[in-house]
Amino acid sequence: MKSKQRITAVEQHPLAGSSFISLMKLFLWNGGVDREYLPQALSAATASFLTIPLKIFENVKFSQKIAELEIELPPIFILGHPRSGTTYFQYLMSRDPNLGYLENWQAMRGSEIFLSSPELAKRWADSNYPRKRISDEVMMYANSPAEEEFPLANACPYSFYTWFYFPNNMRKIFQKFVLFEGVDDRIKTEWKRAYIKNLKRITLAVNGKRLILKNPINTARIKILLEMFPDAKFIHLYRNPYSIYASTNTLYKKLVRVLGFQTINEAELEENIIFIYKQMMQKFLVDKNSLPPENLIEIKYEDFIGNEIEYLKQVYAQFNLPSFEQAEAEFKKYIQSQANYETNKYTLDEETIKKITEQWRFTIEKWQYDVPDELTVKAAP
Questions:
Q1: Containing domain of residue 123, as a range?
Q2: What's the pLDDT score for residue 341?
Q3: What total number of domains does the chain contain?
Q4: Which of 55, 133, 232, 359 would be 138's cystine partner, CB 3.0–4.6 Å?
Q5: Residue 282 has pLDDT above 80, yes or no
Q6: Is the pTM of this model over 0.90?
Q7: CATH code: domain of residue 325
């Protein structure tokens, strides 16, 4: 997959905000960088190196506070395979002023300095926002909610999102750092330490509010999340698998073009999407049985759209969240602001649809989906 679009300013690459040691490990573990991407990789590494003093300052100033902090209110984790509507759900719930979340300006270049140098981190973010999300027409602002998997990828080399930069190892990264297959307990312990530190930093930034976290990759991490947060709450959104495939395929190809340091064959990427969805959802369907029924809510995306307030009432009632009436007006205001949003249109060929049906039959049948009307079916060549 050749690069046709790169980030307009290489210093804005997400890895520019990473730990320099972690970045060096990523280059070493993932087979290096393809020649055509060396300038972008060098720029990201330079930015990472130059911000070492700022990261040291933050560590000195806040390491003790982070170590002593207890996350008293169990987080709410929004789960669902990418492109299942999780972003919309988080954007909506984040309108509740009693909930805290990671913001875009904190998640990228400022991920390890936003507590001690917030104004600097915000200035670095200014050139990126506002803008439309790469996957669709959703507007992103500097203070919009972000996924904690991005700062995790900057803090340590054990994040699934590192595959955006090293796509040739996509499947291996998923198996090691999402399923934790073939890794020893040391790696799992280090991952948990980095993840908890990440959430403590966010908790400090939001003054101890309960966190509302959207991370699609956590759909396959329920058991390890429960080891850290036994009383965590989980909201799982699911959507038509045919739409999921078409949208994910489009998104991932864009992300690799923009962020990747390696070239990957499109057919290999498509096979990886099939494989990862299957592995992720099979693990979720098993591991969700570890949850007390009162701590899990599952929502069909197609039913949620148009009935958001009713579903939010259910979430607040089941999880005993205290502030629905206080936030309801803000929920309705945000829903109204999205009234004219139109989802993307996709085309799949008959061979791909057959492959999805065969490989993902377990979710297609469980949730009773058919090929959606809005999906254009193209005859195989």
A1: 10-345
A2: 74
A3: 1
A4: 133
A5: yes
A6: yes
A7: 3.40.50.300
